[in-house]
């Protein structure tokens, strides 16, 4: 897209006279390759009465106008293209706009002819009272249907930083080069931000939004949206609805918002948030931070050293590859470290905690938890109030496998443990840690345990 920007004025009318005047900016956004526009009257011309007009593009699409950065649709404005005769025969050409949402304010922009300078209420009042405003005569340079060269308008600037606004229908919007602001509005839109640092708002409807190059900000808003950040370090927000949010390459911040969302980091060191709803988060490659938020979530780290957190309800959290920090947080969670030397915590609730391959540190935390170290030499860590926990695969004959009781105040050392807290119950060893809390080492013989198996 290409945007032409021109400075003009806006003046306010109160009690029949001009009360204030200030600068204003007009944005005209057209498709690539369009350098001219024309206009058409929207009703039959009546001599002595200004006739409203609408824009046409010469070549291809005309995407619309914005006043002071706010897009204005045809039904929300009255547009006039007029010839003005003033000051003893000077002739100028102006566009004026009045907005339904801002009554009593007129926006005026100079297009050509004799130059106009209006900077005070008195100057505008004099110009209005002592000038003749009429439709542009047919067959002249600025008449209806004649192509008007945008670059020839005095004071106009060309920029690739576009403001593009869709309709209430399903639109296809493309930002192109430059730092664009794109508003999908209603309907199921397909939006590509293009290169540059862009901000895209899908609006209502189930939208497909792609950031492409640049560090983009993509907002799905309402509806079941598909967001893809592409290259660059992007910020993506799904909003309401069941969204699929993918960061792409780069260090991205991706949030599902409300609803049952799928949030993917892909490449880069990403930060993922599920927020509300039962979400699926996948960090992908590199070192990611993922938080499931409220709801019953599936949180997957992928490769890299990830920090994963389940959230408030019953979650499944998997570290997969890399040396991960995995925390189920509240709820009855299933927490897996995966490959690598992981720190795995169940958090509150009755959790299933597994280390996987690697030398892992496992914490049941509070609640009645089941802990499994997996391959290699693992450390099982307990503290006061940990609940009634079970360790499924403690290897008493592995010199590197240990039970950490350093934060259990009821047990002072191995002698105290052996004499007062640890007993054989069938095929298992049960350790009474005080206050109704216990650790059951499944399938372990008391005679195989010695001081090297514990940390005090």
From TrEMBL:
Source species, domain of life: Bacteria
Keywords: Secreted
Record carries keyword Secreted: yes
SUPFAM superfamilies: beta-Roll
Region spans: Disordered: 256-296, 313-361
GO-annotated cellular components: extracellular region
Pfam families: HemolysinCabind
Sequence ranges of Gly residues compositional bias: 337-358
Biased composition (Low complexity): 269-283
Cellular localization per UniProt: Secreted
Entry's Gene Ontology molecular function annotations: calcium ion binding
Protein name: Hemolysin type calcium-binding protein
Lineage, opening ranks: Bacteria, Pseudomonadati, Pseudomonadota, Alphaproteobacteria, Rhodobacterales
